[in-house]
Design a protein that fits this description.
Blueprint lengths: L18 E7 L3 E10 L2 E8 L6 E7 L3 E8 L2 E11 L2 E7 L6 E6 L8 E9 L4 E7 L4 E6 L8 E2 L16 E6 L5 E23 L2 E8 L4 H11 L21 E12 L3 E10 L5 E9 L4 E2 L2 H4 L6 H18 L3 H7 L6 E5 L2 E5 L10 E5 L23
Parallel strand pairs: 15-16
Antiparallel strand pairs: 1-2, 1-8, 2-3, 3-4, 4-5, 5-6, 6-7, 7-8, 9-10, 9-14, 10-11, 11-12, 13-14, 14-15, 16-17, 17-18, 18-19, 20-21, 21-22
Length: about 400
């Protein structure tokens, strides 16, 4: 049963007994915090990322709110706020001056434990694709057959409005995003796969970084992930100013992933890395065969006697012209200059897409298998993702 309820009492049970909460700051950085009542005041601690250092907390409980002040030596470096609204408890973290406020998503279990995403195949008449649920972070992502404009959405739900079955075909899952829109209400969800997820995180007084990725077991996959992550980790290079309380987590770096195809053998999608202000956004696609422990390239998909580069260039150029016709002038001028060089597999074909842009987001072009399957080798891996065998 997927139960991602955010219903948490401000102080359940005996107030004098400490209780440890686990969660994610801004959906990325694992945190732990604890508090207990003593002499009409709250005392506790908070720790961030992989650092086990416990920063002191002090505060009070009001009628429908708890305030916990985080102290760096004698200065207030942050504020934790828990507010009850419509029987839901929303937690957030802020700098001492409230210039920065970040949400806290409480996790069902210990965030240091292994987590995973559940992938469901959506088979409705009006919608097909993948529904990916990150249970530990209470996030959901819906990927249709021909788009890479994906994002994680907060999934806030209770036992009555959010339910699914891990093993039962045709299960029901319904949830609501934070803007109260129905995320999914499908009678035809097929439970397909579960992918383990790893998170690498570090935090200093003025900076934190948190990178999540599929935690696959292949040696080549692990070597590739290590190569990708090493230059992204800047924890040791960031120098914090002396007035740490005024720059608490002023800088943040995130890494996340999105899946476009998951089958028995294949895991395809892309990693994204960005700063908190989107000043630097990087996209790294992957198409990985976990059975053979190998990545494959475009030239690996086609017959050796076929000029696939000419075919794809012509196809993408024509699709791009049609795409630009629908865009507004500002987006059109930017998209014209952006190449569709990233590619990944989906259940229905190849998807080529741009980097992420602060103006128009991301644009993608789908190349259906039906348009080039005759140019694929009989032994090629694509044959294992085309109907009816791609499960």
């Amino acid at each position: 049963m997927v139960a991602m309820s955010q219903q948490v009492e401000l102080y359940p049970g005996d107030p004098s007994e400490p209780k440890i909460y686990h969660g994610y700051l801004d959906g990325s950085l694992p945190i732990e915090f604890s508090y207990q009542m003593g002499n009409e005041e709250l005392t506790g601690w908070i720790s961030y990322g992989s650092d086990s250092t416990q920063t002191p907390l002090e505060g009070k409980i009001f009628k429908d709110e708890v305030l916990l002040y985080e102290f760096d030596d004698t200065d207030v470096s942050g504020v934790l706020t828990g507010t009850v609204h419509d029987d839901q408890t929303a937690w957030s973290w802020s700098t001492h001056d409230y210039e920065i406020t970040l949400p806290i998503a409480l996790s069902i279990g210990d965030v240091s434990a292994a987590s995973e995403v559940a992938i469901y195949r959506v088979a409705d008449e009006d919608q097909r694709g993948l529904l990916i649920i990150d249970e530990s972070r209470s996030h959901v992502c819906i990927q249709d057959e021909a788009s890479t404009m994906l994002k994680w959405v907060d999934l806030l739900c209770t036992q009555d409005t959010c339910r699914s079955s891990q093993n039962q075909s045709g299960s029901v899952l319904m949830g609501r995003s934070d803007n109260d829109h129905v995320v999914m209400n499908s009678q035809r969800l097929e439970s397909a796969h579960r992918i383990p997820v790893a998170t690498v995180s570090n935090a200093s007084p003025c900076y934190f970084e948190a990178f999540s990725y599929p935690d696959l077991s292949g040696l080549r996959w692990r070597a590739w992930i290590k190569t990708v992550l090493q230059p992204k980790q800047q924890y040791d290079q960031v120098k914090c100013p002396p007035d740490q309380e005024s720059t608490r987590f002023e800088r943040r770096r995130y890494g996340d992933f999105y899946l476009t195809l998951v089958s028995r053998d294949l895991v395809c999608g892309y990693l994204t890395f960005r700063d908190h202000n989107h000043s630097r956004v990087e996209t790294i696609p992957f198409n990985y065969d976990r059975n053979k422990d190998q990545f494959f390239r475009l030239k690996d998909l086609f017959r050796t006697d076929y000029d696939y580069s000419f075919f794809l260039k012509k196809y993408i150029d024509e699709a791009k012209r049609r795409l630009l016709y629908k865009e507004d002038p500002v987006a059109r001028s930017l998209i014209e200059k952006m190449p569709f060089t990233h590619y990944t597999l989906s259940p229905t074909g190849l998807i080529f897409f741009t980097d992420w842009n602060t103006v128009f987001g991301r644009r993608s072009i789908a190349v259906p298998f039906d348009d080039f399957l005759s140019f694929v080798s009989e032994k090629n891996i694509i044959n294992y993702v085309t109907k009816p065998r791609y499960r």
